[in-house]
């Protein structure tokens, strides 16, 4: 009787990541946790079909998945991540092999993770941590979370305040440009890039330059052409993990900006305090106290 009791207590003390996954779906509701195919140092099972459903309290919250390790049979065994609670939801990532994937974020209030393996060769699987937050990346601790959107400090931008507004001082020391009033680099003629680091007259090359952060949906199998007359890169079509794309996007080297075919700028910056919607404005008012909106009038 004592032996049986000790065995039951030992099994119940194991955390979810220490128990090999099976064909059932595990539902996770805590704001933070670790998911894994099983105990560290062991391989996942053949013919696996393991699921983890992460549920936030609100559809306006963000679920972030950060991979800590990755090891599956390349091109045969996969970890799929969906932005939703079913396999019909938009796919966020399809990962296989030993390269640790980038972070993925779900915005629907649900994230579904699937480990699929065939009936042959297996490896040590994956391990990842998830977190649920009111704002994307908790605004990288460089802004304020207001109504599930980041209001960034003056020197930072992006949906999670992770992008420097005027990186590297806009390369001002070597004639690159200057930091404009909209907190982005304004490049001098002949210079381009996020920090105005790329000189169009540089014939030596052999350097990487960041031209822009975001601004275009990730895609594959697209067509692209550079036209010298407009100093622009034109990208058409392709496909992502969910759809065949038929759009035309254009990168203007003179302004270091992506545009659609109508000339609308595809920006990747977070909203500023001067562009808050009514919900966000009410949240700001609630933070400072003493006022509220009644019938469209602030009292």
TrEMBL record:
UniProt keyword Repeat, yes or no: yes
UniProt GO cellular component terms: Golgi apparatus
Domain CUB per the UniProt entry, residue ranges: 21-133
Keywords assigned: Disulfide bond, Glycoprotein, Kelch repeat, Repeat, Signal
InterPro entries: CUB_dom, EGF, EGF_Tenascin, Kelch-typ_b-propeller, LZTR1/Attractin, Sperma_CUB_dom_sf
Signal peptide residue numbers: 1-16
Annotated Pfam families: CUB, EGF_Tenascin
PROSITE patterns: CUB (PS01180), EGF_1 (PS00022)
Highest taxon of source: Eukaryota
CDD domains: CUB
PANTHER family: DISTRACTED, ISOFORM B, LEUCINE-ZIPPER-LIKE TRANSCRIPTIONAL REGULATOR 1
Protein name per the record: Putative multiple epidermal growth factor-like protein 8
Naturally occurring in which organism (per UniProt): Panstrongylus lignarius
């Amino acid at each position: 009787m004592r032996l049986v009791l000790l065995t039951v207590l030992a099994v119940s003390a194991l955390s979810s990541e220490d128990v090999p996954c099976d064909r059932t779906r595990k539902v996770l509701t805590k704001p933070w946790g670790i998911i894994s195919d099983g105990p560290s140092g062991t391989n996942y099972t053949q013919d696996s079909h393991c699921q983890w459903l992460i549920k936030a309290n609100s559809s306006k919250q963000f679920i972030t998945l950060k991979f800590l390790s990755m090891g599956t049979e390349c091109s045969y065994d996969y970890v799929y991540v969906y932005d939703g609670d079913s396999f019909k939801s938009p796919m966020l990532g399809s990962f296989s092999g030993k390269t640790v994937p980038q972070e993925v974020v779900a915005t629907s209030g649900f994230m579904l993770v699937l480990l699929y393996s065939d009936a042959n060769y297996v490896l040590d699987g994956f391990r990842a941590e998830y977190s649920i937050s009111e704002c994307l990346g908790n605004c990288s601790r460089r802004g304020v979370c207001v109504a599930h959107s980041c209001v960034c400090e003056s020197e930072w931008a992006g949906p999670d305040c992770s992008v420097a507004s005027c990186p590297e001082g806009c390369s001002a020391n070597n004639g690159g440009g200057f930091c404009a009033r909209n907190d982005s680099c304004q490049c001098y003629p002949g210079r381009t890039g996020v920090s105005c680091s790329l000189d169009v007259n540089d014939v030596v090359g052999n350097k990487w330059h960041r031209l822009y952060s975001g601004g275009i949906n990730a895609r594959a199998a697209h067509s692209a052409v550079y036209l010298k007359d407009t100093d622009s890169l034109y990208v058409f079509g392709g496909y992502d993990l969910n759809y065949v794309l038929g759009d035309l996007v254009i990168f203007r080297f003179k302004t270091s900006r992506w545009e659609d075919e109508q000339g609308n700028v595809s920006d990747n910056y977070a909203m500023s305090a001067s562009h808050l919607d009514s919900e966000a404005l009410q949240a700001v008012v609630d933070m400072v106290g003493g006022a509220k909106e009644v019938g469209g009038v602030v009292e």
